[in-house]
Amino acid sequence: MTLVRFISADGARIVEVEAKPGERVLEIAQLHDQPLEGVCEGHMACSTCHVIVAERHAALLPRPSVEEEDMLDFAYGVTRNSRLACQLYTTEDLPELEVRMPAGAVNMQSR
What we know:
Layout: E1 2-7, E2 14-19, H1 25-31, E3 50-53, H2 55-58, H3 66-72, E4 82-84, E5 96-100
């Protein structure tokens, strides 16, 4: 299991969720009312599921694909640890994963 910790942009709200290996962070977020749209449903046609991965966890993740890096060019508030939640999966080797919602992100689906 992986403990996924979602932190609001201002740090005021933290939601912790247990996830099985192989679960996509975008789907975990949506199941637990986190403000990630992912309107392209993981097909990398948008950047609405942009999250910022905690420094200590970023190095444990596989490098983003060229396509993911290209999509991040369209995201607001990108940092060197920015990733698309539709491309992040939990693994047995990752006991926890902390992601922060970027400041200024707007969820048009009102989740």
